[in-house]
Amino acid sequence: MNGPEILVDFDPGLALFVSHERRDGPTTAVTDGASTLGHVVESLGVPLTEVGALVVDGAEVAAAHVPAAGQRVEVRAVPRPQRVRPGEAPDAPLRFLLDVHLGTLARRLRLLGVDAAYESTDIGDPALAALSAGERRVLLSRDRGLLRRRELWAGAYVYSDRPDDQLRDVLGRFAPALSPWTRCTACNGALRAARKEDVAERLHGGTRGSYDVFAECGVCHRVYWRGAHHDRLEQIVRAALTEFPPATPAPPAPRTPSSTIG
C-alpha cells in the first residue's frame, strides 16, 4: 500500500495475530486510501471474527469505514462472554460447526449437551463457510484464512491446541447453555432413554449382564450406558459445570460412554 498513514493500536489479546513490532502499542500503517478498515486490519493479521470493536479517534465505526490520513485506530478484542449476533433472540441456543482438526473438542462439547456439528473429513473451506451460513452456526477453527471468508455466519479462532484449554476457551467466550449427557457424542443427535430389552441384541454379553440403564441416539441409534471410563468423563463434566455453571440446573440424564470421547 502507498497512501495515507494511520496509527493502529491492537488490544493485547490480539497479539497472537500481529507482528512483534505491533504488540507493544500504537504503530503506523500505510493504507491505499480506498480499502476499508476491516480489510486493513485483516491485512495486518487479525481475522474480523476476533475483533470486538473498531474505534477511530474515540468513536466506534463499522468495518466498512475507510480510514483517512492521521486517524488513530483502536482494534479491540471481542468481549467475553460474546454476543454473537445482536439481532438474534437472547435465549436462542448457540450452534457450532467445527473443522476437521477439532474432533476432540466437538465430542467434548456434545458431552456437555452443546450442539456441535463436525466434519470428520476435509470438505474444503468454501463448503464449511456455506454450511455455517446455511445452518447459522458459529464456525470454530484454528485456520485464520478460513475465518476470513465473507460467507461465514459467525466464526471464532480456537486459541489453543490442547483439548482442555480449547473447551475452556469456547465455554468462556460464548457461554452456551450446558445440558450434559443429552447429546450423542458420535453424531450430535439427541439422546433418549432406552429399555434394556429393546437394545439387548446390540450389546455384548458383559454389558448386558453389568448394566441396566441405557440411552439411544435418535439419529444414529448408537446405544449408550455408564461405561468403564465414566469417571474420566465425569471429571470433564464436573470441571465444566464448576467453572461455567448453568443458569438453570439441568435434569439428570443417562450417561454417555467414554469410547466416544478423546
Automatic annotation (TrEMBL):
InterPro entries: Mut7-C_RNAse_dom, Ub_Mut7C. Residues 95-236 form the Mut7-C RNAse domain. It holds the Pfam family Ub-Mut7C. It comes from the Bacteria. Residues 4-81 form the Ubiquitin Mut7-C domain. It comes from Streptomyces silvensis. This is Mut7-C ubiquitin/RNAse domain-containing protein.
